[in-house]
Write a structure and sequence with these properties.
It is a single chain. This protein is α/β, with parallel strands linked by helices. It is built from 14 helices and 16 strands. It has helices at about 110-115, 120-130, 165-170, 170-185, 200-205, 225-230, 250-265, 290-300, 355-360, 365-375, 380-385, 395-400, 405-420, 425; strands at about 25-30, 35-40, 55, 60-65, 70-75, 80-90, 95-100, 150-155, 190-195, 210-215, 245-250, 270-275, 280-285, 310, 320, 335. A hairpin with a 5-residue loop joins β12 and β13. The protein binds iron/sulfur cluster (2 copies). One iron/sulfur cluster binds near residues 362, 392, 393, 395 and 396.
């Protein structure tokens, strides 16, 4: 298999958002009548007593399918469970959707406050994995893949979005506390805070972390690109960041850890960038589980037939099909596209114009790679045309004159190949 290094990634065409020194005040989204939490596991045969329709849950209560340690979600509202249903996410991810009819006031569950008396990595994972920024704290518990380095990214990973940078700038003390918790409780030796170049001097020396500047040009902040810039290598088939001893976290996730330990309550609100049909930007704070429809209504954004809703930014976002979709712990942005402005993908063939090759930051022969991927020949694409050098930036899809959904082909191919890796290799 080829493992071509990523040369020439510095072909800046677009820059990430860099907030001005005067930070915007987010609009607080009101409490919805009902909220939906996505528990990251499939429905099983024996739910715990707290997961029954009609059960009243309290704010901050840990909800898991059974009483064994494992995936859980923390209730962000007090109220009664009115529905439990399976939900399928992207690329085969399975969830159990818990709908809660919310009450007007919060009644807090105190189990997390009690657990804070003797915080362990397991306590952090149990209560904070569904906190704003979705810290992947369960990855710290796997003795077969010990984590030696945490990379905290302080900017955002898509264009026009500035949610994460906003949290880094507005909750600096919480980020600082979160870094100390990760070092002391989880015992991670090395923590790197990667920040967009222009804001480097604002943070250097202020954290118990090594602060590194990252270019502000897209796609320098994609995790795969950051990994290459910091470690000089790429991930190959079957490898994950954790298999290399590395864990990525957003600054918002680290701030959530710091705030939780400080206040002894799990943070509930997610900061989001909302891009409306006219291209205006709104910064909002909404509790996790709030339906998108409530946010759009608060901002006065009306949807018409065939308008498109996207979770994420313009380059890597994913379309969602209902205003009932809830804000999740890792939802950094919501984009609304007017039906008349949507550029649809097509099934036209590649005309070999070479635009994708010229713009690719990983110097992949995208025009050749896509020929294999659209025929379902993912392994050949990986072996012959450097599938694993792709950092999933979406620039090739943006410039493709045939409007081919190249990024989607790439993601699907990586997903399919990951399923073929034997379990013993995954656990290496
Ligand atoms: S998404 Fe396209 S442009 Fe970006 S690295 Fe991958 S192949 Fe290259
Ligand atoms: S931009 Fe599209 S049409 Fe042009 S070479 Fe690349 S895949 Fe083919």
């Amino acid at each position: 298999m080829l493992s071509k290094p990523i040369f020439g990634y510095a072909k800046p065409k677009f820059n990430y958002e860099l907030l001005s020194t005067v930070l915007p005040q987010p609009i607080t989204i009101p409490r919805p009548a009902s909220a939906t939490l996505l528990l990251p596991r499939e429905m099983g045969p024996a739910p715990s007593s707290s997961l029954k329709i009609g059960t009243r849950v309290r704010t901050g209560q840990r909800l898991a399918w059974d009483d064994a340690p494992g995936p859980a979600v923390v209730a962000t509202f007090t109220g009664q469970i009115t529905a439990i249903a399976p939900q399928l996410g992207d690329y085969g991810r399975k969830y159990t959707a818990l709908t809660i009819a919310t009450e007007a006031r919060d009644e807090w569950d105190e189990a997390f406050a009690q657990a804070c008396a003797a915080t362990t990595p397991a306590t952090l994972a149990d209560y904070l994995s569904s906190a704003p920024g979705a810290p992947a704290l369960d990855k710290l518990l796997n003795p077969r893949k010990p984590i030696h380095t945490i990379i905290i990214y302080g900017g955002d990973t898509d264009l026009l979005v500035d949610s994460n940078l906003y949290v880094l700038k507005s909750q600096t003390a919480a980020v600082e506390k979160g870094i100390r918790v990760l070092k002391e409780t989880a015992g991670v030796e090395k923590i790197i805070l990667a920040v967009p170049g222009e804001s480097f001097q604002n943070f250097d020396g202020h954290f118990a972390a090594e602060v590194r500047a990252v270019p502000a040009s897209y796609p320098s902040a994609q995790p795969l690109m950051l990994f290459y810039q910091l470690f000089g290598r790429i991930l190959n088939q079957g490898q994950s960041f954790e298999s290399q001893g590395v864990l990525f976290m957003r600054a918002e996730a680290v701030a959530a850890i710091g705030t939780a330990l400080d206040q002894r309550r799990v943070p509930l609100e997610k900061v989001l960038t909302v891009l409306d049909k006219q291209g205006n930007k709104h910064m909002v704070a909404a509790r996790i589980g709030t339906p998108i429809g409530t946010i759009l209504k608060t901002l006065g954004i009306a949807l018409a037939d065939r308008d498109r809703l996207i979770f994420g930014g313009p380059m890597t976002g994913t379309a969602v099909y209902s205003e009932d979709q809830p804000v999740q712990a890792d939802t950094d942005a919501i984009m609304v596209q007017d039906a008349g402005q949507i550029i649809l993908s097509s099934d036209y063939p590649c005309i070999n114009c070479g635009e994708c090759v010229r713009i690719c930051p990983s110097n992949i022969a995208v025009n050749m790679l896509v020929r294999f991927l659209e025929m379902g020949q993912s392994q050949d694409g990986a072996d012959l045309y450097d599938l694993y050098s792709c950092v999933e930036c979406g620039l090739c899809s943006l410039v493709c004159v045939s409007r081919m959904p190249i990024l989607q082909y790439i993601k699907l191919a990586k997903f399919e190949l990951a399923r073929t890796v034997p379990a013993e290799e995954i656990n290496e």
